[in-house]
Write a structure and sequence with these properties.
Layout lengths: L7 H11 L4 H11 L2 H18 L4 H8 L3 H13 L3 H13 L1
Helix pairs in contact: 3-4, 3-5
C-alpha cells in the first residue's frame, strides 16, 4: 500500500464508501463527490482492467472504451505490479454473480 494515501482523511472516505448500502446510494454519493468526467474516467479504467484480464489487445480496448494507450498502460502496470486491487474486486464480483 502506498503510504502517501494512508491518511486519516482517505480512511474516512473509504469508511463512507463502505457504508453505502446499494447502487442508488453509490450513484448519489459519487455524483456529489466526483465530477462526471472523474467518475467516467474511473469506470473506464475498471473496464480497461477487465478487458486486459480477458486478453484483449490495446487496440480492441481503445476502440471499445475510448481509453488512451497511456491509460491502458497505466492500468496494465497496476494489474501486473500493483496491490491486486482490481483482481480482488473482479473475483468478488464474479463470485457474487455465480
Amino acid at each position: 500500500m502506498n503510504k502517501k494515501i494512508k491518511t486519516p482523511e482517505v480512511e474516512q472516505l473509504f469508511k463512507a464508501i463502505m457504508c453505502l448500502e446499494n447502487i442508488d446510494e453509490c450513484f448519489d454519493f459519487f455524483e456529489d463527490l466526483c465530477t462526471i468526467n472523474e467518475l467516467l474516467s474511473l469506470s473506464q479504467r475498471y473496464e480497461v482492467a477487465k478487458m486486459l484480464r480477458e486478453q484483449k489487445t490495446y487496440l480492441e480496448i481503445a476502440e471499445k472504451t475510448g481509453a488512451s494507450t497511456a491509460t491502458i498502460s497505466r492500468v496494465n502496470r497496476s494489474l501486473n505490479y500493483g496491490n491486486d486491487g482490481y483482481d480482488m474486486v473482479m473475483k468478488r464480483l464474479e463470485t457474487k454473480e455465480n
